[in-house]
Amino acid sequence: MLFHVRMDVQLPPAMPAAQADELKKNERELAQSLQRSGKWRHLWRIAGQYANVSMFDVDSVEELHALLMSLPLFPYMKIEVMPMCRHPSSIHESDA
Amino acid sequence: MLFHVRMDVQLPPAMPAAQADELKKNERELAQSLQRSGKWRHLWRIAGQYANVSMFDVDSVEELHALLMSLPLFPYMKIEVMPMCRHPSSIHESDA
Amino acid sequence: MLFHVRMDVQLPPAMPAAQADELKKNERELAQSLQRSGKWRHLWRIAGQYANVSMFDVDSVEELHALLMSLPLFPYMKIEVMPMCRHPSSIHESDA
Amino acid sequence: MLFHVRMDVQLPPAMPAAQADELKKNERELAQSLQRSGKWRHLWRIAGQYANVSMFDVDSVEELHALLMSLPLFPYMKIEVMPMCRHPSSIHESDA
Amino acid sequence: MLFHVRMDVQLPPAMPAAQADELKKNERELAQSLQRSGKWRHLWRIAGQYANVSMFDVDSVEELHALLMSLPLFPYMKIEVMPMCRHPSSIHESDA
Amino acid sequence: MLFHVRMDVQLPPAMPAAQADELKKNERELAQSLQRSGKWRHLWRIAGQYANVSMFDVDSVEELHALLMSLPLFPYMKIEVMPMCRHPSSIHESDA
Amino acid sequence: MLFHVRMDVQLPPAMPAAQADELKKNERELAQSLQRSGKWRHLWRIAGQYANVSMFDVDSVEELHALLMSLPLFPYMKIEVMPMCRHPSSIHESDA
Amino acid sequence: MLFHVRMDVQLPPAMPAAQADELKKNERELAQSLQRSGKWRHLWRIAGQYANVSMFDVDSVEELHALLMSLPLFPYMKIEVMPMCRHPSSIHESDA
Amino acid sequence: MLFHVRMDVQLPPAMPAAQADELKKNERELAQSLQRSGKWRHLWRIAGQYANVSMFDVDSVEELHALLMSLPLFPYMKIEVMPMCRHPSSIHESDA
Amino acid sequence: MLFHVRMDVQLPPAMPAAQADELKKNERELAQSLQRSGKWRHLWRIAGQYANVSMFDVDSVEELHALLMSLPLFPYMKIEVMPMCRHPSSIHESDA
Fold first, then answer.
1. Which residues form the Muconolactone isomerase domain (chains A, B, C, D, E, F, G, H, I, J) (predicted)?
2. What ipTM score was computed for the predicted complex, to two decimals?
3. Interface partners of H (3+ CB pairs, < 8 Å)?
4. Angle at J36 between CA J35 and CA J42, to 5 degrees
5. Which residues from H are below 8 Å from I88, CB to CB?
6. In the list B63, E95, G51, J57, which could disulfide-bond B58, CB 3.0-4.6 Å?
7. Among A6-15, D28-37, J40-49, where is mean pLDDT lowest?
8. Could you give all domains of chain G from N- to C-terminal order, each with its CATH number?
């Protein structure tokens, strides 16, 4: 089941660099393990923004929510979720 | 080069069904040929909306613009374009 | 799987009354059969608006999309969909 | 009498964890007792957000306001309230 | 029970004057009878706009909704409803 | 002369309780004296919000501005002002 | 008493030129007579828009409303009204 | 050359009173000297807001920008600028 | 003097093709003559939109307004104008 | 390849002047070197705002993103990016 998720990150400017780097490192590790598991199917950077668009492939809405809440950067993110489905004109099996 | 494109279609309710069907058929054919060519890399339907999110992989902004303007439904669509790039945490070669 | 759906209906003022009544009758019949099936779990009217908030309990996003597109009033509705999940503080089994 | 209430929680990132946990514990206890009393009829989590949609069944607007103001998280919440009524197409007695 | 209701009227410019006048006459008569009944407690014109702010004093949300839907201008109005309650600093018994 | 004023209060969460209580006490006293004087004609609480809708009856725009600026909570309020006039369908002499 | 009024005009593209010209002629005549009377104190064109910003000097909100409603273009205008008063730093007597 | 400028001032609540007063004093002095010079042609207070609408009469956009940036309150202001020109229906020479 | 102008064109879908083509031809001719004159300094197409961003170099706001109003597509355009000036970090003489 | 980029800078008022000046100096140096390289083709100041509109000429979206992220003021900027292409009516070779 596919969800389009936009994440806009806003770290407080006053946050110490070390703390920010630690958060980003953990975020990166978790994101990559979720990609390897297939849950986090696509991850793109929006040019010019500290933001990404991702496609998640999960088994339930609960699973999606748990994954997003588990992200180290979650408290600093504005998140928009859109449920997606296969487009009638799509020829990509992988887009289901 | 990747562009995230959201298309919201709004056909005038008074449009004759035959005309609408013809437009949609032509739109479908062009969309599928562009997908086969690799230009239109992803195409998903936003649940509950007559709208889609797509990822285009083109060689230039001009090419993107020409493709979008050539869509039969273009005059009836609100289109938002975001340039995307590979995310530093992405493990998907195919997301470049 | 739960989805919160807001539907704002906007029929063209110039639409003949008979056509509007027919649409509403069909909408009502479909809505009630979907409620009986359990798919359409909750349906409330927003006071003062020709709009409703509904909760759908479906097996997939595709199913949700198909149901919404099948509504006779679909062409005349602005629809917003939010995926919902059980709240950690909820005591209602039926809210899962 | 039914009210649809959306609550978006925004705790200051700098708030000490212990204080936040205490607030959440108290919020949870109050929310569950209000659910048991029937006042708080539905409570769902919006996927990907620290936010919920709830349905309150109260005897007056004053009662609704008092309940919401009494929530420990109230000072940190953006709240939107919509009065709801039974939908003419609803078959659910429990949605009145 | 008090509800703050804002009504913005937008009659199609192409509507024949006679039809518009008939609508306004009926609207006026119903509004005045509802005021006499006490349901429609306050009615003010927003300067420069074909819009009003009203305060309704009704027994239920259903009653409010039925009243608003019964207004001849309802199909041509954008309506916003806010539930209100007595302010702790109010000295006006009549504002309850 | 009537003005519809909406006031949304946003006290900084970090403000000491004593300071906040003092502000609210002073605000309450001034609001009640202005109501007794007839300047502050109506004052209602928006359910679920730390906000109110008020109707002021003043002799000039300057007087309205001075009253609002004199409110202890003014620095912490988002204020929207709409000039109102008697509605042609109003039967309430007191709504002039 | 001063009111800042922004008027955005939107004539239906399908309106016959003669009808539009007649409306504009009448609008112009009324606007100029109101300026001569001192009611319409300032009138500026917003560059690039079929819109203006005006300052009205009237004796009451009712008078303002009546003037605006009497404008031939009123049915085709979006109007925003802001009550203004003398600025404490203003040295212009004429800005009172 | 005329520019309509709206300035909304938002001083941080935590700013010491003395610092705020100093800023306001300097702002007032500069504003009055600019008014005497004719650059700052009109200055009105928006009722109920810590905001003003002004009309500047300058020789270039650069001059406008320099004036606005020189205002002591500039760092604490949200500014909107609209270029204005003489309205074809204006009879006021002074509005050119 | 530089003005940044965004123009979003929205031709009524029902407009006959011949009329639309005629409008576009005239628009094109005027746009090119204004570019040759130096008034219309830059003209870019926003990818995916029937919209452009332009930079105008004119002698007065009146001139800008007259140019924009003279465009054949003016009645079908939403226009936003921003006055621009030389950036302190700019090294381009031609950007003045 | 052209990108229209709007940058709105918002430095925290509490930032020490020296730190702010250092940031601005570094920003200025990088901006000027990028202009000399041709990447940063146009840079204009929006009058009355601490904001600019720029046109970037880059070889890829990745390059654009890297340039923007490298700007010292990046953490304090709200950035909007629009892909642009040559306008069919443009006569400026240099606008390609």
1. 1-89
2. 0.94
3. F, G, I, J
4. 30
5. none
6. B63
7. A6-15
8. 2-87 (3.30.70.1060)
